[in-house]
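Box 3.1 A note on notation
Throughout this textbook, protein chains are presented in two layers. The first layer is the amino acid sequence; the second is a token string describing backbone geometry. Keep the layers aligned when reading.
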Amino acid sequence: MAQIQVKLVRSAIDRPERQKRTVQSLGLNKLNSTATHESNPSILGMVKSVQHLLQVTEL
């Protein structure tokens, strides 16, 4: 499958707890941290729910 790289470009501070946990489960801790994931439906759903905080790049 294709892979995607996600980068945290906006802070999760002052966001609902659910969004904070989603960002954390994607493996993103600090601003500008990146993580690489397989492009499967569960990962894409998490990315879509916090897309306003992320920058997504296909590899």
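The chain has a mean pLDDT of 97. The first strand starts at residue 3 and ends at 8.
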